[in-house]
Amino acid sequence: MVTIKDIARKAGVAPSTVSRVIQDHKGISTATKEKIRLIMDEMDYRPNVSARNLVLNSSHTIAMILKSEAHDAYENPFNNAVYNGVVEACREDGYSIISTTKNTEREILEEVKSLIRLRQVDGFIVMFSKTGNKVTEYLTSVGLPFVVVGKDVNQNNDAIYIDNDNITAAYQLTQLLIDKGMRDIRVINDDEGFTVAKDRMKGFKDALRDNELDSDECIIQVGSELEEIRDTLNEAFNSKQPEGIITFDGFLHAKVLAALYELQIRVPDDMLTATFNDSPLTQFASPPQTTVDIHSADIGREAGRALIGLIQEPNKLKCNITLPTQVIERQSTRKE
Amino acid sequence: MVTIKDIARKAGVAPSTVSRVIQDHKGISTATKEKIRLIMDEMDYRPNVSARNLVLNSSHTIAMILKSEAHDAYENPFNNAVYNGVVEACREDGYSIISTTKNTEREILEEVKSLIRLRQVDGFIVMFSKTGNKVTEYLTSVGLPFVVVGKDVNQNNDAIYIDNDNITAAYQLTQLLIDKGMRDIRVINDDEGFTVAKDRMKGFKDALRDNELDSDECIIQVGSELEEIRDTLNEAFNSKQPEGIITFDGFLHAKVLAALYELQIRVPDDMLTATFNDSPLTQFASPPQTTVDIHSADIGREAGRALIGLIQEPNKLKCNITLPTQVIERQSTRKE
DNA sequence: TTGAAAGCGATACCAC
DNA sequence: GTGGTATCGCTTTCAA
């Protein structure tokens, strides 16, 4: 294996000089820089990550923290897509990723603390946004860089927040259904706690209000089990079957569709359906679903880049990032 | 940060002794072992990974190599599930993972070579099995440990192979359809090259033969685009519409279902459908699909464990691992 | 603008 | 059984 000393010897300079060239240090003549770069290329030199990490006391590793049932987390295409985006961003700069899931905030906090000591993580991507988030509070207090995928609830200037404009997205999706002549539209959701759900709810209600539709009693809260969902829907539809439904997450939506199938409700003939977070689960559903593409992989890529930027330059200005959304209409809202 | 020297000082021993205790070295008295372990606990000592990697010239990192379009690879639930299994196995031993996808074997080979130098990967998980696999040949030649997810095509004793019994699984799935009275069953597949497809094909044909059914002309080869699939199926069904179809991969199957929907072929009323690789895509399809659960996450876990075992003990006997499969019947094959 | 040398934290060889 | 110490590859002062 070729080391920094080999390069130095061949170039007739000291290892420290080579090290400076690697870092494009100002104060090294262009001549030597070029000479040494050439030799590094020739010898196909790659710096040893462990050695560098050791002396810099960093791990070149970031952690991605999810909050949910482990099983669900890894099956939900949204998380996978974001993860892949993060992977991409990390590869560009040679970072590694640790990804963990816990169910409660307490457990997450433990994990975060242990991660900080145990593996020397350089920063965190927190995959959820909530008011009174203990995890972000803790990270702020210890001063470790982190970015949050979600909304900046209380204008936290210690971190970068990556989000879509979920209010507008939900407004547009709802408007699409209203434009189809739907008057009775309901929302299906499984966890009210997250900011993303609140935003989507707001967009939904705003759209109803602007179209002078009533927004009372149009929220259906469900669990995560298929049978449970089916029964809840069945009961909710008992008095009056809505003309259209919007689910706040694509993964949940797949279960809703399976439930509708069991209830013998046909899409789009009996009911229009639409959801958020486009993925194969919605693209290749039967029928393919109208969704809001929130560009999950891009969220991940931006989150990764932002975090790495923060790690390398902790004092840089922390500006939040809002990614565009796009309503994709498919057959689930196309009644002949 | 507490280091090995701090422990040594507090215990009144040399750093080397502490190091030996960490490795549970035989030749250290139980008394000192216990004493030092206590102190390590008290001081909440964690070995520095970078330092250890540096001196051991290892990276504590394994690579997972996929062969397909990047986009597809990360959307296919099978790959994600296997990956999660690998993650779990790696976490147990503190290993990190690099995952990459390339389209051609040439590109993969380049990536592998570069990975070996660039990041000092300790071993590989090769996510495909083929006859004449250049990647496994190369890895064998350089002597780096690797495991293959797939079938041991030519009794390669230099690596561990993790696989299901795909022949039997396909046989059982086919038999299930035959038991439903289906006589005209077709297979849909997108890539014949992989061993897994060959095995499933054999199981399928064996089942037909044992039931005295004709197996000619029952293979439908499709591409990966939805429109393409729809057109191919439409044409294939033109002369005679089969009574049942089996797709060799669950991700492809989702597209097939979407195509059937467009062609206005109803499942299970007009046609029974079944596939491999159970996932949310098949569980929550409309209708939920009969599938073979190949326990993808377990494949990943076993692959990870096997690889780590190989890394830590390169000369240990390399025995292949066969995981069980399980046919799960759902509504797609239940005609009222 | 460059060089010499100390040191990051852990391991393993050679002594005793 | 245990201790002393060179070593891994790189960065970074301090000097020149």
From TrEMBL, chains A, B:
It comes from the Bacteria. Gene3D superfamilies: 3.40.50.2300, lambda repressor-like DNA-binding domains (1.10.260.40). SMART domains: HTH_LACI. InterPro entries: HTH_LacI, LacI/GalR-like_sensor, Lambda_DNA-bd_dom_sf, Peripla_BP_I. PROSITE patterns: HTH_LACI_2 (PS50932). PANTHER family: HTH-TYPE TRANSCRIPTIONAL REGULATOR GALS (PTHR30146:SF109), LACI-RELATED TRANSCRIPTIONAL REPRESSOR (PTHR30146). This is Transcriptional regulator, LacI family.
